[in-house]
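TA notes, week 10

Several of you asked for a full example with nothing omitted. So below is the full record: C-alpha cells for the whole chain, then the designed sequence directly under it. When grading your own attempts, check the secondary structure regions first.
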C-alpha cells in the first residue's frame, strides 16, 4: 500500500515516550511511523506521496468530550444569539431570521445568555413584540431552558393548568400564567420532544452535514455525543452506512428520569453491542442530575443569593439503582452535575454502584462540575471518576450572571477547541479578550491543555487505543495549524486556523 509522508513539521504527538517529532508516515487509515525526517522517508519508501509541512504544527485530532452532534447541526440553521448583548439585539436578530425564512413554520434561535435579559427573566411578551404570528423557540446558551412566545405556548398546549413535569419548571408570573420560559425537563420533554416529532429524517440528515463540517473545520475529529436518542442515532447510522460520517462519534444514551430505568438501560446495552465500529460507537449512558447555575436550576448545598434552591432532576432513591444497573451492564456512566449538591449526589451514586457491583474496571465521568465542595474533590480520585469540564464555562464574558446567582461565592460549550485552549491557558475570555482574567492562578500550560483536549479526552471515552495521539498503530487522525499554539503570545490561539484535518488518513477539511 502506497504511503503518505508528512515531512518537515513540528509534531506534538501527545505520546510521553516521544513528545515531539519531525515527520509521520501514514498507510491506509493508520499511522505507520512517527519520528525524524530521514527515517520517515526510508520507512515510507521511494513511491510514497510526500507532503511538505514547511514547519507547520501538527496535533492529534481533538476529541470533543461533551458534544451533541445532530443538535449542533440544527443550531447552525438557527438565529445566533450568543453575542447579543441585550433584549433589543435579540429581538432584532429574531425578527431578521423570521423575515429571511418566511416559509418556516417556526422561528428558531439559539444561544441567548441570561445576562442579556433584564434580571435573567425572559418573557413571551418580549418575543410577541417582534413575532406575534408564528411560534418562536429560542434555546438558551446552556441548552437547559427554552424561551418561547405566546404562539409557541399555544402550539405546545401549555396553559396555567399545565403541571410542571418532574425535574422541570414552567415559569409562571404572579397571576399563575406561563411567562414563556421553560426550564430543564419542561424544555427537554415538552419542547424538544415536540420539535423532534415535527422534524423528519431528512431534516436530521441535512443537519448532520453542517455539524460535521463545523467540527472538522475546527480540528475536532472525534465527538462524544452526550444525549443520543433513537432519531439522532438513526441519522448517524444512515451517515455511516452511506459513507458520509467523516467525524468519529462516541455515544452516550440519554436515560430519562420518572420512567423505569430497566428497559432504557437494556436498550443502551443492546446498542453498545450493536454499534462498535471505529466510526460510530455507543459506549455508555447519560444521566442529567441537575440543571445550571445561570437559571438557578443547579442543585446546591446552600441556597442561591435569592434564598432559593433547586431540587435534583433525579431523586436520590432513583439515581443510585439506575447507575448501579448501568455499570453492571458494562456501560460507561456519565452524570451531568453542575451544583455542588448534585456533584455529591452523583458521587454517592457511583460509590454505591462500586459497593454493590464489586471490583471491576471503571471509567465513569461527571460532566461540567462547575461548583464542587472541596471535601468532594478527593472522592473523584478515590472513585476513579473523570472530571469532564469545559474551559468555556469559565469564560469571563459569561460569568457575571453565574456569579450573581451564587452571591458572594462566586453553559452547552461552544465546540471550537482552540478558543477553549485559550481560556484554559489564560483564564481570559475568548468572546471578549479585553476582559481581565478570572482566577488566573488556575491557568494551565498550553501543552497540558492540548493534552487534555486530545489524548486525555480519548482516554475518558475509552478510545485511547485508536485515537488521541500521534503514535504508530493508531488511526491517522490529526490537524495541521497555520500558527504555533505554543507561541509565548497566548493570543495566538485566537488567531490560529486549521489548515488541514485528516481522519483515518483521508483529508476531510482543507482551509481555502
Amino acid at each position: 500500500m502506497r504511503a503518505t509522508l508528512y515531512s518537515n513539521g513540528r509534531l506534538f504527538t501527545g505520546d510521553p515516550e516521544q513528545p515531539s517529532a519531525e515527520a509521520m508516515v501514514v498507510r491506509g487509515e493508520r499511522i505507520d511511523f512517527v519520528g525524524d525526517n530521514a527515517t520517515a522517508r526510508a520507512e515510507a519508501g521511494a513511491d510514497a506521496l510526500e507532503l511538505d509541512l514547511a514547519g507547520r504544527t501538527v496535533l492529534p485530532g481533538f476529541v470533543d468530550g461533551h458534544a451533541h452532534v445532530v443538535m449542533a447541526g440544527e443550531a447552525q440553521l438557527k438565529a445566533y444569539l450568543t453575542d447579543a448583548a441585550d433584549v433589543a439585539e435579540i429581538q432584532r436578530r429574531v425578527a431578521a431570521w423570521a423575515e429571511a425564512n418566511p416559509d418556516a413554520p417556526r422561528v428558531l434561535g439559539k444561544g441567548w445568555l441570561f445576562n442579556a435579559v433584564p434580571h435573567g427573566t425572559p418573557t413571551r411578551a418580549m418575543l410577541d413584540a417582534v413575532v406575534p404570528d408564528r411560534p418562536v423557540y429560542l434555546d438558551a446558551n446552556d441548552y437547559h431552558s427554552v424561551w418561547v412566545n405566546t404562539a409557541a405556548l399555544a402550539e405546545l398546549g401549555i396553559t396555567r393548568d399545565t403541571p410542571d413535569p418532574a425535574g422541570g419548571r414552567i415559569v409562571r408570573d404572579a397571576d399563575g400564567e406561563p411567562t414563556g420560559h421553560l426550564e430543564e425537563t419542561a424544555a427537554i420533554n415538552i419542547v424538544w420532544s415536540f420539535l423532534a416529532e415535527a422534524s423528519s429524517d431528512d431534516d436530521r440528515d441535512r443537519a448532520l452535514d453542517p455539524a460535521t463540517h463545523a467540527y472538522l473545520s475546527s480540528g475536532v475529529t472525534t465527538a462524544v455525543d452526550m444525549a443520543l436518542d433513537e432519531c439522532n442515532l438513526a441519522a448517524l447510522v444512515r451517515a455511516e452506512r452511506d459513507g458520509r460520517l467523516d467525524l468519529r462519534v462516541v455515544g452516550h444514551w440519554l436515560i430519562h428520569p420518572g420512567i423505569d430505568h430497566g428497559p432504557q438501560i437494556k436498550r443502551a446495552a443492546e446498542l453498545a453491542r450493536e454499534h462498535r465500529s471505529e466510526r460510530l460507537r455507543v459506549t455508555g449512558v447519560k444521566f442529567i442530575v441537575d440543571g445550571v447555575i445561570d437559571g438557578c436550576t443547579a442543585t446546591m448545598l446552600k441556597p442561591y443569593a435569592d434564598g432559593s434552591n433547586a431540587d435534583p432532576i433525579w431523586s436520590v432513591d432513583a439515581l443510585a439503582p439506575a447507575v448501579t444497573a448501568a455499570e453492571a451492564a458494562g456501560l460507561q456512566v456519565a452524570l451531568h452535575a453542575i451544583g455542588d449538591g448534585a456533584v455529591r449526589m452523583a458521587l454517592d451514586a457511583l460509590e454505591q454502584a462500586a459497593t454493590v457491583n464489586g471490583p471491576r474496571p471503571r471509567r465513569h465521568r461527571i460532566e461540567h462540575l462547575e461548583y464542587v465542595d472541596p471535601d468532594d474533590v478527593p472522592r473523584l480520585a478515590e472513585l476513579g471518576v473523570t472530571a469532564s469540564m469545559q474551559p468555556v464555562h469559565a469564560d469571563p464574558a459569561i460569568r457575571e450572571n453565574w456569579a450573581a446567582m451564587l452571591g458572594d461565592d462566586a453553559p452547552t460549550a461552544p465546540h471550537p477547541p482552540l478558543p477553549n485552549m485559550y481560556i484554559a491557558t489564560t483564564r481570559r475570555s475568548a468572546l471578549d479578550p479585553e476582559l481581565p482574567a478570572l482566577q488566573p492562578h488556575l491557568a494551565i500550560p498550553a501543552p497540558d491543555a492540548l493534552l487534555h483536549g486530545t489524548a486525555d479526552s480519548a482516554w475518558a471515552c475509552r478510545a485511547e487505543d485508536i485515537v488521541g495521539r500521534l503514535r504508530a498503530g493508531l488511526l491517522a487522525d490529526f490537524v495541521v495549524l497555520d500558527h504555533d499554539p505554543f507561541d509565548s503570545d497566548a493570543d495566538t490561539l485566537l488567531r490560529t486556523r486549521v489548515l488541514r484535518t485528516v481522519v483515518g488518513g483521508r483529508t476531510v477539511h482543507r482551509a481555502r
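The CA atoms of residues 226 and 249 lie 10 Å apart. Use that as a sanity check on your answer.
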